[in-house]
């Protein structure tokens, strides 16, 4: 089953880094870009065939994967012998990566529409290039098959970032409550499974997948939600990146299952 990754947005809310590179190429503290973390996680479940929707500074994604084998291996360059070079240790991944230029200003639905020929009429997975999780992909796919819908999204509860203050005017008591994860509603966390029928809901480059496709699927009872109560975190801002970096530094990154 192929995995489509949306990696074409500008990432304006993390412009401190995204003005230099596309957001999926922003590195965490193990010197690997977040898109690598996402792909590595899928690979742990046996999913190694990726289609990456490029846009903003997409050439950097292409150059990264074009040189991936070289950068991840031990190499000797012998300039005394016709510039020969020898690869000593190959640590490249068992990946097949298709990088597609889906346009600079194309909306999310338009990007998915542009890769239609690469999924070849198959059921496929799709996620965003800026979020990591420890969602059980095997259970997600099984749930999708059971529900028999056009699309299944992973629903997560991000919770609020701020606590709440409640004032009882009768007693005069002020109570502070730290915001709990369960206090927030369920939202789309990516990590989706889609049927080929999804393309009927993708009109053109201006189609917003979340608004024009998912909303219509919901109205037609063709949308399922796989509730994930474990770890999930997107990297929208530098604050988010610092949090992910801290988890990596402390060896507490729940998505880095390959380290275990």
Secondary structure elements and their pairing?
Layout: E1 3-7, H1 15-18, H2 34-44, E2 49-54, H3 58-66, H4 68-71, E3 74-78, E4 84-89, E5 96-101, H5 108-114, H6 116-119, E6 124-128, E7 131-133, H7 137-147, E8 151-156, E9 164-167, E10 174-177, E11 187-188, E12 192-194, H8 209-219, E13 223-227, E14 232-234, H9 238-249
Parallel strand pairs: 1-2, 1-6, 2-5, 8-13
Antiparallel strand pairs: 3-4, 6-12, 7-14, 8-11, 8-12, 9-10
Give a written overview of the molecule.
The protein is α/β, with parallel strands linked by helices. The chain has a single domain (3-259), classed as Spore Coat Polysaccharide Biosynthesis Protein SpsA, Chain A, CATH 3.90.550.10. 28% of the residues lie in helices and 24% in strands. It contains nine helices and 14 strands. Strand 9 (164-167) and strand 10 (174-177) form a beta hairpin. The longest helix is centred in the last third of the chain and has 12 residues, at 238-249.
Question: What descriptors fit this protein?
Answer:
260 residues; alpha/beta; Spore Coat Polysaccharide Biosynthesis Protein SpsA, Chain A; 8-stranded mixed beta sheet; two-stranded antiparallel ribbon; 14 strands
């Amino acid at each position: 089953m192929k995995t489509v990754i949306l990696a074409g947005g500008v990432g304006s809310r993390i412009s401190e880094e995204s003005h230099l590179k596309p957001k999926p190429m922003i590195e965490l503290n193990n010197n690997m870009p977040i898109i690598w973390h996402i792909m590595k996680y899928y690979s742990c479940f046996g999913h190694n065939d990726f289609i990456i929707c490029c846009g903003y500074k997409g050439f950097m994604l292409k150059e990264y994967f074009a040189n991936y084998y070289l950068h991840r291996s031990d190499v000797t360059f012998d300039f005394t012998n016709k510039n020969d070079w020898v690869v000593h240790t190959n640590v490249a991944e068992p990946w097949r990566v298709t990088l597609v230029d889906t346009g600079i200003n194309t909306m999310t639905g338009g990007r998915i529409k542009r890769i239609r020929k690469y999924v070849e009429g198959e059921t496929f997975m799709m996620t965003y290039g800026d979020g990591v999780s420890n969602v059980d992909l095997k259970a997600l796919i099984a749930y999708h098959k059971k529900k028999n819908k056009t699309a299944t999204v992973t629903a997560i509860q991000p919770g609020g970032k701020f606590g709440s203050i409640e004032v009882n005017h009768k007693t005069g008591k002020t109570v502070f409550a730290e915001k709990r994860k369960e206090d927030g509603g369920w939202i789309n966390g990516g990590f989706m499974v889609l049927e080929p029928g999804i393309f009927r809901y993708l009109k053109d480059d201006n189609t917003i997948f979340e608004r024009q496709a998912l909303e219509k699927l919901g109205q037609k009872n063709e949308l399922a939600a796989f509730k994930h109560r474990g770890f999930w975190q997107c990297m929208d801002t530098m604050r988010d990146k610092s949090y992910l970096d801290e988890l990596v530094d402390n060896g507490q990154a729940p998505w880095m299952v390959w380290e275990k």
